[in-house]
Amino acid sequence: MQFAHELIVPEVGFPFKLFLFEGREGHYHREKHWHRSIEIFAVCDGELEFKIDEKTWHLTAGEFMIVNSNEVHEVDSPLPNETIVLQIPLKVFEKYYTGEQFIWFTHEPGRKDARFMELLEELYQTYCEKQCGYDMKMNSIFYHLLYLLVKEYRLTEVEDAFVRKNKNLNKLSAITSYMKENYAQELSLEEVARIFGYSPTYLSRMFQKYAGITYKSYLQNIRLEYAMKDLKGGKYNITETALRSGFSGSKAMARAFRKKYGILPSEYRENA
């Protein structure tokens, strides 16, 4: 099934976000990250690769991945693909928590997978067509998806380690939100630790243990993502982009950019 290449953010009134994956053109890698929402990737064409807790999952057309709340994951999209992404706020599932603000879904294939995939495709198609009453139909499909999630994919017995990790990533979420809002400023480990009442050593250990990434790497990834957006937009030159993104200068950004992407910022902008 082919879809229009556009970012979709449904109007106010829908309890979810629905859009096409930003890495649909290929040559894309999303570094380790996590979020409070449940996220579902449904591959309609092409393929994607996920890494979750050091386990790799390869998805092809007709398959989907459920990413749990606060589950650290990274995504590889080397080739073009058509992938629907559905983001569901955690609070939608509050009646089904197995612990304090905790619910967990399996990644393993199940007997309802074909129907679940059909519903995801129908949800997106309904939004694109926008026929009379489409909003009511979308909500109907969405709640059918929720029903399958809690009935077929929810785990009622979860290891204590998952629950502990979830709680600590909740704490880290407040910190990473602050980092994303202030990425252009000086954000030393010591200063951020002071703001949130931790010692630098403890905060550094939290990132490494629960997110599987260092504080420095996480901050640099945020800055590189914003730099890429500015470079692609073409509004700012290399030096302006570097300073806007929180780098000390164009040379520092070039080193980080080349280390991660294998090319210089100038090369990326020429091909963007």
TrEMBL record:
Family annotation (Pfam families): AraC_binding (PF02311), HTH_18 (PF12833)
Record keyword Lipoprotein present: no
Domain of life, source organism: Bacteria
InterPro entries, A to Z: AraC-bd, Homeodomain-like_sf, HTH-like, HTH_AraC, RmlC-like_jellyroll
Domain HTH araC/xylS-type, residue spans: 173-271
GO MF, one example: DNA-binding transcription factor activity
Entries under SUPFAM superfamilies matching the protein: Homeodomain-like, Regulatory protein AraC
Keywords from the named record: DNA-binding, Transcription, Transcription regulation
PANTHER family tied to this protein: ARAC-FAMILY TRANSCRIPTIONAL REGULATOR, HTH-TYPE TRANSCRIPTIONAL REGULATOR EXSA
Record's protein name: Melibiose operon regulatory protein
Species of the source: [Ruminococcus] torques
